[in-house]
């Protein structure tokens, strides 16, 4: 997750995601993902098997609301990119990968 000026509580978001997702899922904070105008930005990596099958990371911007975090956590726990479709609420925040992340 990259945080920017719009952040509601990035540390709280990180704690919440780590608590919900547990140790099976790696939640890391990044400095800049070259999409600062869309902060808070989160990039969800596919699981190994999904990546081998061709799944790509999903970039999400403006992740500012609790409902979005709830949907994100549920999606990741259900399998995430390449396994489960992106929830409608999150699809509204989907971004193209930033230049740095390509």
Characterize the structure shown.
The chain is 33% helix and 8% strand. It is mainly α and 102 residues long. It has a three-stranded antiparallel sheet with strand order 1-2-3, with no helix packed on it. It is globular, with a radius of gyration of 13 Å. The mean pLDDT is 86.
Q: Could you give the topology of this structure?
A:
Blueprint: H1 10-21, E1 42-44, H2 48-52, E2 58-60, H3 66-78, H4 88-91, E3 94-95
Antiparallel strand pairs: 1-2, 2-3
Order of helices and strands: HEHEHHE
- Helical content (DSSP H or I, runs of 4+): 25-40%
Task: Order the strands across the largest sheet as they lie in space.
Answer: 1-2-3
Query: Would you tell me the structural class of the helices and strands?
Result: mainly alpha
- What is the total tally of β strands? 3
Rg, alpha carbons? 13 Å
> Multimeric state of these chains?
single chain
The share of residues in extended strands comes to: 5-15%
Largest sheet: 3 strands, antiparallel
Low-confidence spans: none
Q: How widely separated are the two ends?
A: 16 Å
| Whole-number count of domains | 1
Give the overall shape, derived from the CA principal axes: globular
Average pLDDT over all residues: 86
Compute the number of helices. 4
Compact summary:
The protein is mainly alpha-helical and 102 residues long. It has helices at 10-21, 48-52, 66-78, 88-91, and strands at 42-44, 58-60, 94-95. The protein has four helices and three strands.
What are the key terms here?
102 residues; 4 helices
């Amino acid at each position: 997750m990259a945080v920017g000026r719009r952040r509601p509580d990035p540390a709280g978001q990180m704690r919440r995601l780590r608590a919900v997702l547990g140790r099976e899922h790696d939640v890391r904070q990044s400095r800049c993902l070259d999409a600062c105008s869309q902060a808070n930005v989160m990039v969800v990596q596919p699981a190994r098997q999904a990546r081998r099958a061709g799944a790509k990371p999903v970039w999400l911007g403006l992740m500012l609301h609790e409902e979005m975090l709830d949907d994100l956590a549920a999606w990741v726990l259900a399998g995430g990119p390449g396994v489960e479709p992106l929830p409608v609420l999150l699809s509204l925040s989907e971004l193209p990968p930033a230049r740095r992340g390509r």
